[in-house]
Design goal:
The chain is of the alpha/beta class and 213 residues long. The chain is built from 8 helices and 8 strands. α3 packs across α4 (120-129).
């Protein structure tokens, strides 16, 4: 938040025994000292893994973050959060429901995070589990039927690959009462174009390059 930003995005998965934690990939291999699918391992096994060495030596032995730790950080620092429900294959409904229940518990009485997913099945499970939590549909392409899916899921936002987003789509989303968000913009000129077109929010890896405009 040192650059004036006050919102984060993270990916949340489920262990075999139902613990919610942060991991981007479908396997543990690339970013931890573990191997294989986290959906087939209990949290007690994964809690001992080194999830920091892949990044750089100062992070050696850093464990996988639990969802609860991120919730505590965001609330202590007044940060908003976009929680991408990122299930392992075949775990869509179970993960969506678990993440929604945990989010409702962790943010009880506070402004809740936005639950987003590329997987409509995961969002549907989140909706059924905790209808009051806001939802956003992630789109890497504009697949047939996405507007109907977004409607059925009761979303408050549609979040697309920035290459798909233009003024016409922003206006179409706004006409439905949905916020228009994009990922992942690391170029200031692209960010400016999207802002000029009326975008509501931008996900970036480059907070230092986009400035705080």
């Amino acid at each position: 938040a040192g650059f004036g930003f006050h919102a984060f995005e993270c990916d949340v998965k489920l262990s075999r025994d139902g613990q919610t934690f942060l991991l981007h990939d479908d396997t543990l291999d690339r970013t931890t000292s573990g191997q294989g699918s986290p959906a087939e391992q209990d949290w007690a096994q994964m809690d001992r893994l080194d999830a920091g060495s892949w990044h750089s030596p100062p992070f050696t032995a850093e464990p996988l973050p639990r969802f609860a730790q991120i919730a505590a950080f965001c609330q202590a620092n007044g940060c908003a959060l976009n929680v991408e429900i990122k299930p392992c294959p075949g775990e869509e409904a179970r993960t969506g429901a678990a993440v929604a229940h945990e989010a409702a518990r962790l943010w009880a009485g506070a402004l809740p995070p936005l639950l987003s997913s590329f997987k409509p099945e995961a969002l549907a499970a989140a909706r059924d589990a905790e209808p009051a939590l806001p939802r956003g549909l992630l789109l890497d392409k504009l697949w047939d039927g996405w507007p109907e899916a977004a409607e059925a899921l009761g979303v408050v936002a549609v979040i697309t690959n920035y290459r798909l987003m233009d003024r016409a789509l922003i206006e179409r989303l706004h006409a439905k009462g949905w916020r228009a968000l994009v990922y992942t913009v690391n170029d200031a000129a692209i960010a400016k174009r999207l802002i000029d077109d009326g975008i509501d929010g931008i996900i970036t890896d480059a907070v230092d390059r986009l400035g705080t405009a």
